[in-house]
Write a structure and sequence with these properties.
Elements (H helix, E strand, L loop, with lengths): L9 E6 L4 H16 L8 E6 L5 H15 L7 H8 L2 E5 L10 H7 L6 E6 L6 H10 L8 E4 L7 H12 L7 E3 L7 H11 L13 E9 L8 H26 L8 H14 L5 H7 E7 L1 E3 L2 E3 L2 H5 L8 E6 L11 E6 L6 E8 L15 E7 L3 E9 L8 E7 L3 H4 L6 H11 L8 H21 L4 E4 L6 H8 L10
Parallel strand pairs: 1-2, 1-4, 2-3, 4-5, 5-6, 7-12, 8-17
Antiparallel strand pairs: 7-13, 8-11, 9-10, 11-12, 13-14, 14-15, 15-16
Helix pairs in contact: 1-2, 1-13, 5-6, 6-14, 8-9, 8-14, 9-14, 10-14
The structure holds 6-O-phosphono-beta-D-glucopyranose.
The site of 6-O-phosphono-beta-D-glucopyranose has 5 residues, from loops.
C-alpha cells in the first residue's frame, strides 16, 4: 500500500505561475499530493506572474488547466475546490525594483513558522535577479529555499554566473536544482535494484556488460517553445541534464548511504570520468539530426524549420557514443540517444550483457538485457534465455522476466514533480543537482559543442516519425551493435 506521510506546512511561491511548466506539471503535482492528504491545511501556494489576474481568476485558470493536465483527478469536486482555496495570486514583475514587491511581502507576512519556498519556473536569465530581489525585500529568510528549474544556463560560464548570483543569497543546502528525471519512479528503482540486491553488483561492470543504451524518444515537436529550443537544441535541452543524470545513476559506485551528499559525491566522479570530445572524436562518435516533415503515429507532422518559421542549424536529435574512463567501465560504451518527433514516446535504459563465451546449444541465445523503461509504461524487464517448452529439438527462447509490480498492486505512478516538490518541503536534497555536478556536466557538453562548431556541418535530416537519421543506426552498426527498438 502506498503510504503518505504529511510534510510540514509550507508557503510555496511559484514564479512563472501562468507558464507552461506550472500549469502542466507543478499545479497538477500539488493537486495530487493534496488529494492524497500529504499537504497540511495551513499550506499556501502563491502564484506570481506579470499577467493581469487576481486570486479568483488565477484559481479558475488552475481549475481549467487541471481538466487538461490532471484528467480524472477531480472525481471528488469538493476536494479539488478545497485545494484551490490554498492557491493565491500576486501580480508581480519579478525583475522590478524592490518597491514593486509590496504585494508579495504582504502575502508572505503571515507565513511565520512555515517552510518557505521560492520556485523559479522562469527563464534562467531571471534567476539571479529574482534571488537578489528576494534578498533586498527581506523575503529570503535564513531558512527559506529556492528551487531552480533546468536549464541552469546554456554553457559553463552562464551556469557559473547563475550559481554565483543565486549562491550569494541562498547557500547550497537551500538550493534545489531540479532535474525531473531524477524523480521518475524507474530511476529511483534503478538505485534500489543496484544496491538492495546482492545479485546485481558482481555483474555490473565491464567484465559482464557489453554496453549501455539510454534512449529518450519523444513524439512531440517543439510545440510553442521554438524560441527557447532553437537557441538550445537537444544536447543542451536533454543530454546535458536528464541523460547525463541517468548515465550517472547507471555508472556510479555504491554511495555509503542515501544521504544527498553521499549520492552526489559519487555522481560527480562519473561526470569527471566522462571522456571529453575533440573535433575528431565528435565526428566519429556523435550524430546531430533535425526532423523534416513526416508522419508520427499516422498524423502529419511539419518539419522543424516550418514549425519555428525559419531555417535553422539546431539539432532536434543527437546520438552519442560516450565513454566513462574508469576501472569499472573502460571499454563499455554508453550509447545515448534523444530526439523529438520520433516514432513513439519511449524512454529507457538498456543494460546489454555480453554473449556467453561459447554456445553448447548450437546457437540461438540472445544477449541478456536488463531494460528499465521510464515511460510511457514504467517497468523493469530482465531478458533471459529459456528452453522453449514442448517436445522436439531443444530450442532456445529469449523471454522477459517482468519485474514491474505497479499494475499488480494497482498503484498509480506519481509524476516526478510530485516526489520532488515534497522533497523540497522536507529539505531532502538527494534527488537534486549540486552545483559541481551541473558545472561538470556543462564542461563535458561545452567540449562537444565546441567540437561541433569546429567541424561545422548541418544536422542530418530525419523524417518525423522515424528513429532518427540513418547515421544513428550506423554509429551502432560500425561497432557490430544495434539500438534496442522493440517492435
Ligand atoms: C524537458 C525538456 O526538460 O523535458 C523538454 O525541456 C522535454 O524539451 C521534456 O520535452 C521531457 O520530459 P518528459 O518527462 O516528458 O520525458
Amino acid at each position: 500500500m502506498a503510504e503518505f506521510i504529511p510534510v510540514p506546512p509550507f508557503d510555496l511561491v511559484v514564479f512563472g505561475a501562468t507558464g507552461d511548466l506550472s500549469l502542466r506539471k507543478l499545479f497538477p503535482a500539488l493537486l495530487h499530493r493534496f488529494l492524497d492528504g500529504q499537504i497540511p491545511a495551513q499550506s499556501r501556494i502563491i502564484g506570481a506572474a506579470r499577467g493581469d489576474l487576481d486570486t479568483n481568476s488565477f484559481r479558475k485558470l488552475i481549475h481549467d488547466s487541471h481538466e487538461e493536465f490532471a484528467p480524472g483527478a477531480c472525481v471528488d469536486h469538493a476536494k479539488c475546490e478545497e485545494f484551490l482555496q490554498h492557491v493565491e495570486y500576486v501580480k508581480l514583475d519579478a525583475t522590478a525594483e524592490a518597491l514593486a514587491w509590496a504585494g508579495m511581502q504582504a502575502a508572505l507576512s503571515t507565513g511565520d513558522g512555515k517552510v518557505r519556498i521560492f520556485y523559479l519556473a522562469t527563464a534562467p536569465s531571471l534567476f539571479v535577479t529574482i534571488a537578489q530581489r528576494l534578498a533586498e525585500t527581506g523575503l529570503a529568510t535564513p531558512d527559506s529555499r529556492i528551487v531552480l528549474e533546468k536549464p541552469i544556463g546554456r554553457d559553463l560560464a552562464s551556469a557559473r554566473a547563475i550559481n554565483d548570483g543565486v549562491g550569494a543569497v541562498f547557500d547550497e543546502s537551500r538550493t534545489f536544482r531540479i532535474d525531473h528525471y531524477l524523480g521518475k519512479e524507474t530511476v529511483q528503482n534503478l538505485l534500489v535494484l543496484r544496491f538492495a540486491n546482492m545479485l546485481i553488483e558482481p555483474v555490473w561492470s565491464r567484465a559482464t556488460i557489453d554496453h549501455v543504451q539510454i534512449t529518450v524518444a519523444e513524439e512531440i515537436g517543439v510545440e510553442g517553445r521554438g524560441d527557447y529550443y532553437d537557441k538550445s537544441g537537444a544536447l543542451r535541452d536533454m543530454v546535458q541534464n536528464h541523460i547525463l543524470q541517468l548515465l550517472c545513476l547507471v555508472a556510479l559506485e555504491s554511495p555509503n548511504s542515501m544521504d544527498a551528499d553521499a549520492i552526489r559525491a559519487e555522481k560527480i566522479k562519473v561526470l569527471s570520468a566522462l571522456k571529453r570530445f575533440d573535433a575528431a572524436g565528435a565526428k566519429e562518435k556523435t550524430v546531430r539530426g533535425q526532423y523534416k516533415a513526416g508522419l508520427v503515429k499516422g498524423k502529419a507532422a511539419p518539419a522543424y524549420a516550418d514549425e519555428i518559421g525559419r531555417r535553422s542549424g539546431t539539432e532536434t536529435f543527437v546520438a552519442i557514443k560516450a565513454e566513462v574512463d574508469n576501472w569499472r567501465w573502460a571499454g563499455v560504451p554508453f550509447y545515448l540517444r534523444t530526439g523529438k518527433r520520433m516514432g513513439e514516446r519511449r524512454s529507457e535504459i538498456v543494460i546489454q550483457f555480453k554473449q556467453t563465451p561459447v554456445s553448447i546449444f548450437g546457437g540461438g541465445e540472445g544477449p541478456n538485457r536488463l531494460v528499465l523503461r521510464l515511460q510511457p509504461d514504467e517497468g523493469v524487464r530482465l531478458w533471459l534465455n529459456m528452453k522453449e517448452p514442448g517436445p522436439g529439438g531443444l530450442r532456445i527462447k529469449t523471454a522477459p522476466l517482468d519485474l514491474s509490480f505497479a499494475e499488480e498492486f494497482g498503484v498509480r505512478y506519481p509524476d516526478a514533480y510530485e516526489r520532488l516538490l515534497m522533497d523540497v518541503v522536507r529539505g531532502n536534497l538527494a534527488l537534486f543537482m549540486r552545483r559541481d555536478e551541473v558545472e561538470a556536466a556543462w564542461t563535458w557538453a561545452d567540449a562537444l559543442l565546441a567540437a561541433w562548431a569546429e567541424n561545422g556541418g548541418e544536422p542530418k535530416l530525419y523524417a518525423a516519425g522515424s528513429n532518427g537519421p540513418e547515421a544513428s543506426a550506423n554509429l551502432m552498426d560500425r561497432d557490430g551493435r544495434a539500438w534496442w527498438d522493440p517492435e
